[in-house]
Amino acid sequence: MKIPSATGTLLILSIAAFAQNRQIKLNQAGFYTRAPKTAVVTGRVAATAFHVLSENGKDTVFTGQLGPEKQSAWSSTVTRAADFSALQKKGRFMLAVPGLAHSYVFEIGNNAAAQTAVATLKGYYYQRASMPLEEQYAGKWRRPAGHPDTAVLIHASAADGRRPAGTVIASPGGWYDAGDYNKYIVNSGITMGTLLSAYEDFPVYFKKVRTNIPESGNALPDILDEMIFNLRWMLTMQSPDDGGVYHKCTNAAFDKMIMPAMATAPRYVVQKSTAAALDFAAVMAQAARVLRPFKKELPGLADSCLRAAGKAWEWARMHPAAAYEQERLNEQYQPAISTGAYGDRHFADEWLWAAAELYVTTQQEEYRAVAEKHLNDSVGLPTWSNVGMLAYYSLLRKGNGVAEPLKNRIISTADRYIEKAAANAFGTVMGQSARDFNWGGNANAANQGILLVRAYLLSKDKKYIQYALTNFDYLLGRNATGYSFVTGVGSKTPMFPHHRLSIADGITDPVPGLLVGGPNKGMQDKCTYEFTETETAYADVACSYASNEIAINWNAPLVYLAHALEALKEEVGYTAGK
Is 415 a catalytic residue? Predict the structure, then answer.
């Protein structure tokens, strides 16, 4: 392939050299026809120009100037931006810089986020427990059922007069939480809240989205079918006697790296907790209103959800400080439990979220009063331990007078994101501070994107979508590692996630559509990392649970962000023609 060099002479790049390129970082899923398009060149280069070439390398379709050099705040990386937004030609291309190998091939078209959107939503199907995955839906990742969870034991920490220790209950279905095979109410809470919010914000769009799951083609959108599979499991986790909610359904210890059908360790439900009850109440209240229009297809389910929400709320009122403290419980009860704790001692955000969802669904003043009591509490990006922002989103959507003060908070936060992005060496909102690169930091990027989408929905200012798109670019390759962090989407993707299904199935490719945690400056797993700076501390190795595990609560905000971009692409002018 021939391209002009910095001096005007022709530079010939060999195919062998192409494979060695690590320096051009871009969204490997592609770009919308009329959206901003930026790649980042890392390292010091002599060239001042860059070129976009046809896929076969024979034609130069665009030439531009590299931007000024920037020093990253979070690593020793230096960058120069290659802005080719003016290129609005559909097709498959690659980007080249004289003296460097070309980028991965990328596509420009009207459906830039579609593959990621469908793949990440379909990712939940692969996480289903208690059912076989058939080839027509799972392809080469088909597998027999595991963890039927029809004979789950009441753990001593969860025992009461009506259900003593050792009582057998059924708790089938639901999603495996992450790289392990356990099921946790607290993490299902934020996951379901995020997915339900995606549907509430874009219900017409989701009617058309198909993910090839067993329920596809019925009267419900696929996103609702997928969520209902987890929702029905969550309902089994509520005690029919007092309305309390068991914190998790779990082994005593993590399974080995085996397939689900091979895992036969006893399963337990453990202590009821305030956080579990309130997260459960919030999800059930939100689900009740989302499912109301489907009473014919789902007789009684919306009503059951609302009743369950009310019972969980009342239990939490009677038990406002029931924290799940696993180490303390292990001193008192056997068997000791060593799976994920999801322990939380601060419940103000859960009260806010549960009250908000119950108020929006029922309009009852009792819930409004509690929500208003907590509106001035500190609220940040959603995490499993801080769900207050989910309350903001629902109140802004349908909260009547309660919501008005929240609008300015969302807009001002979005504006601060934008102000800081200009100084970022990768031109993304992600990387506001070193704290962005924590355990599961990729979810921070996606959740920042959601907040920017929400700012757009409130203001109709397209700049917010433009900056949400920068974080989508980050997750799909425009980052210091050069990885697209979604399995199966892009050219350089995680191949060895900390994910039992992907490790044990004997298939080279990992289960697709799963977002790994990403760079984590803590590196708590003590694995070997080739790169250890704040924004590069990522290792594509199976042992790296601190940077390379997957989790349902990390996938959910990317599901929202990718589908939001697809839902809004015409409205914001990112498409052209057909």
Answer: no
Q: Which of 177, 226, 540, 566 is catalytic?
A: 540
pTM over 0.85: yes
In angstroms, rounded to a whole number, what is the distance separating the alpha carbons of residues 133 and 141? 8
Q: Is the pLDDT of residue 81 over 80?
A: yes
3-state secondary structure of 38: strand
| Residue 309 DSSP SS3 | helix
Q: Is 344 a catalytic residue?
A: no
pLDDT at 20: 37
Examine the residue annotation and report whether 225 is marked as an active-site residue of this protein. Answer: no
Distance, in Å, from the CA atom of 379 to the CA atom of 391, rounded to the nearest integer, reads 10
Average of per-residue pLDDT across 66-71: 98
DSSP letter for each residue of 414-462: HHHHHHHHTTSTT--SS-SSGGGSSTTHHHHHHHHHHHHHHHHHHH--T
Q: Give the list of residues 6+ apart from residue 212 with CB closer than 8 angstroms, or none.
A: 122, 137
CA atoms of 425 and 420, how far apart (whole Å): 11
- Residues 313/281, Cβ–Cβ less than 8 Å: yes
Annotated catalytic residue within 177, 180, 226, 279: 180
Choice among 226, 525, 549, 566 that is catalytic: 549
Question: Are the beta carbons of 227 and 424 closer than 8 angstroms?
Answer: no
> Does the annotation count 180 as an active-site position?
yes
